[in-house]
Request: fold
Amino acid sequence: MQNQTQRSDKFTSFFALIAIPVIFAACLVLFFYVLGHESNFEGGDPVKGHPLNYLGTVYKGGIIVPFLMSCFVMVLTFSVERFLTISKAYGKGSLDKFLRDIKFQLSDNNLETAKNRCSSQKGSVGNVVFSVINRYQQILSDSAYNKEQKTAAIQKEIEEATALELPVLEKNLTIIATLASVATLVGLLGTVIGMIKAFAALATAGSPDAVALANGISEALINTALGIASSALAIISYNFFTSKIDTLTYSIDEIGFSIVSHFNATYREPRSERKVAETFVVQ
Reply:
């Protein structure tokens, strides 16, 4: 199960490394060859022609637009990727039912059945519980450790298994969180550039150039709209996936506490350990 987690981590890193430049290149192509196509403008002139449709209008937003389009598409792409990854981490079936099944098997001391249930669940919680129960079985009859040391070993296994699972789930959330801020700032940059052009049109000698003024204001508003849309989507996506990961973390903590409690309630020291303890008391 650890190898599976490591493969998933490598895939996530590779996906981010490839997706970002590919999305940016695709958005540049879309901007220049689709939005900027001559059929979208009067007279077939993307520079001076008036836009005939929404594609041409977005193109008039200026060179900042492909960057904002990239931010928007990246948010969508990484949101889908995180959704698939976190959904897989939840495993098969209901997570609450899985936790109830594991607690029931623990209460009956059916450790092998519990491990089989973890294998069939195929989720992050199942991976953690499988590792902990496996460690539980290893130290159960090990006379080299006393009860306190065994309890500490189980708790350490919970922490280590959790540390292997959770970073994979949180891996690309930093990208989404970064895009939430970057999209706003890039949109603001486009807005400022558009307003500079609008005021430059007002500052011309004689009567202001109405076309240049309108183009500058249009560019500012288009960049503002794209920046706000990208940022809003990124914030919603980040908060949604964070709450899903928190649910998994809480489930792992809950079942970990149940395993430790079961061990403390059912563990009986081997006779050799009791004899050593009694000898120490007598002395």
User: Anything to note?
Assistant: Residues 273-283 have pLDDT under 50 and may be disordered. Residues 210-266 form the longest helix (57 residues).
